[in-house]
TrEMBL record:
InterPro entries: Biofilm_reg_signaling, EAL_dom, EAL_sf, GGDEF_dom, Nucleotide_cyclase, Rev_trsase/Diguanyl_cyclase
Gene3D superfamilies xref list: 3.30.70.270, EAL domain
Name of this protein: Diguanylate cyclase/phosphodiesterase
Domain GGDEF per the UniProt entry, residue ranges: 195-326
SMART domains recorded: EAL, GGDEF
Chain ranges of the EAL domain: 335-591
Length: 592
């Protein structure tokens, strides 16, 4: 029976065997073969990865060995072959900050580490995500890790290109509103409350007309030329952006205080004095400019730009450079709130009409009433027409408001007839806004209202301002002719304050001229006012028109106007606007 040798005996036999050189050589070859197999296995594993990766080993003597896959080797070779900056020919792992981060990771205890690395600047720069993953150390303490490089260059360049498209105007190449707001936000963070910067908003006049009449290509050419001129007028450090179709914004640094903003605005206006050559035409373009200063009351870039746009709105009306005044935003918010409340009031029929008498100055009897909208809010109380009518015109609510006034006035007159037992020898006047005339089919609205009330057209007078006629003479002519076909009378309100010409008065079917109160109230102490009133009365007589004087507040005015031949008077001397229930008794009192 063969007895197996003891374990210690086997160890002794191996030790004795290793004394022979041939055996040691065989063992060394086998060890190298094993190491090579392991290396090949690691290499094959690394090559299978879809990213550049390498196994980094730091030997005990401090030397670093790198086993990289094919992608890592190619990336390392390409980066080193193009020396676009100092140190570019170094291997990737010997460049900063990779080298320092790798050394810290190998000597630390973290399981993984990741950071972004930009290798080089400008066009030749590369962008990577560098990741370290710890591997188990050898028994002798040799440290190892997996290094991977994810190339994000294409992604970063695409993002950069996309951002450039998102933050710049494609036509002029200027920053757009997004980029401008970012620049303003940066200034606000550094300059809050110091008033060291200002924003100008510039709007081109007549641009829409040029765009419509000459085409979008001509419009684009004009915008580009304007941008070039404005850039030439600015100082170094000022930022110009295009924030709208024909609207530009400028961020200014105020070196010498707020006056710098006005100086810049004047320079911009000066650049517009020379005509712009578009195709074979030379066109003059003006601009309106609004300004807002940085202050500690500004909530952000949008607030600052909006403030400048509020000032711009005033500049369009005044023709001057306007600076934002605190409180304008609150007023605008109040107007929007008023718009909401007015819409609800119209829908719920919460408005009322007051009726101001029109008194015949020769007979002293009531010839008619002018219907005036009144609004008494539950919380705000009585709101003046001078406050809510502009809101209605701006928001478009003037159309339903005008129709309501027309329907209500005629229905009230029909009710008075019924109470009196016969048609009254009076008419009712209803105001028609320029906005209503432009947006609504006034003739159809009047026809329907007359049919529902059962009244004849000659019981209705429609009062239009001069501006309503001048804005669109052709439309106004068609509308007035349609109204005359319904036998309605037409009165030109506030005559003398607008832009009427004799041609309009001669061509349009106008029945009554209403002399504005600005000429009437001061005529007893002003020869010029008397002359104007006398001239209007003479003109009306020559054209076969009746006249009504507004603002008659004293008996002396009433007698003077009567002596001059004025037909009717309207004002506090006769009566303030009356409710529907008070108007009929008032007519009876003056007809007795």
């Amino acid at each position: 029976m063969q007895v197996e040798p003891h374990r210690s005996e086997l160890a002794a036999m191996v030790d004795e065997t290793m004394e022979f050189p041939i055996v040691r050589e065989i063992a060394r070859v086998e060890e190298l073969a094993t190491i090579e197999l392991i290396r090949r296995a690691r290499q094959e594993y690394l090559n299978a990865l879809p990213i550049a990766a390498a196994i980094v080993t730091e030997q005990l003597d401090g030397t670093v060995e790198i086993l990289g896959n094919e992608q890592f080797q190619v990336l390392d070779a390409i980066s080193g072959a193009i020396p676009i900056r100092p140190g570019a020919t170094l291997p990737l792992v010997e460049r900063e900050p990779v080298q320092t981060a790798l050394a810290d990771f190998l000597r630390g205890s973290a399981r993984a580490h990741e950071f972004a690395w930009q290798d080089g600047e400008g066009v030749g720069g590369r962008h990577f995500v560098v990741r370290f993953g710890r591997l188990a150390a050898y028994e002798d303490g040799t440290r190892r890790c997996v290094l991977s490089l994810i190339d994000r260059t294409a992604e970063v360049e695409n993002e950069r290109s996309l951002r450039a498209e998102m933050t710049h105007d494609s036509l002029t190449g200027l920053p757009n509103r997004v980029a401008f707001n970012e620049a303003v936000e940066s200034v606000l963070e550094a300059d809050a409350g110091m008033a060291g910067h200002a924003v100008l908003v510039v709007d081109l006049t007549r641009f829409s007309r040029i765009n419509e009449s000459m085409g979008s290509i001509a419009g684009d050419e004009l915008i580009i030329t304007v941008a070039r001129r404005m850039i030439a007028s600015l100082r170094a450090g000022d930022l110009l952006a295009r924030i709208g179709g024909d609207e530009f914004a400028i961020l200014l640094k105020l070196a010498d205080g707020p006056g710098d903003a006005l100086h810049a605005a004047r320079r911009i206006q000066a650049t517009m004095t020379a005509p712009f050559r578009i195709s074979d035409l030379e066109i003059r373009i003006d601009c309106a400019i609004g300004c807002a200063l940085v202050s500690d009351q500004i909530g952000g870039a949008e607030d600052l730009v909006r403030n400048a746009q509020f000032a711009l709105k005033r500049a369009k009306g005044s023709g001057r450079v306007e600076v934002y005044q605190p409180g304008e935003v609150s007023k605008a918010r109040h107007r929007f709130s008023l718009e909401t409340e007015l819409r609800r009031a119209i829908e719920s029929d919460s408005l009322t009409l007051a009726f101001q008498p029109l008194v015949n100055l020769q007979t002293n009897k009531v010839a008619g009433f002018e219907a005036l909208a009144r609004w008494e809010h539950e919380a705000l109380g009585l709101i003046s027409p001078t406050e809510f009518i502009p809101v209605a015109e701006e928001s478009g609510l003037i159309v339903p408001l005008g129709r309501w006034a027309l329907e209500t006035a005629l229905a009230t007159l029909a009710r008075w007839d019924a109470e009196h037992g016969a048609p009254l020898p009076i008419h009712v006047g209803v105001n028609v806004s320029a906005i209503q005339l432009a947006r609504d089919d006034v003739s159809s609205a009047v026809e329907n209202a007359l049919r529902r009330s059962g009244l004849r057209g000659d019981r209705l007078t429609l009062e239009l301002t001069e501006s309503a006629i001048v804005q669109d003479p052709e439309r106004a002519t068609r509308t007035l002719q349609g109204l005359k076909g319904l036998d309605a009378k037409i009165a030109m309100d506030d005559f003398g304050t607008g832009y009427s010409s004799l041609a309009y008065l001669q061509r349009l079917p106008i029945d009554i001229l209403k002399i504005d109160r600005s000429f009437v109230t001061g005529m007893l102490g002003d020869r010029d006012s008397v002359a104007i009133v006398r001239a209007v009365l003479g003109l009306a007589d020559a054209l076969g028109m009746d006249t009504t004087a507004e603002g008659v507040e004293t008996i002396e005015l009433a007698h003077t106007l009567s002596a001059l031949g004025c037909g009717c008077g309207q004002g506090f001397y006769f009566a303030r606007p009356l409710s529907a229930g008070e108007a009929l008794p008032y007519w009876r009192s003056r007809s007795a």
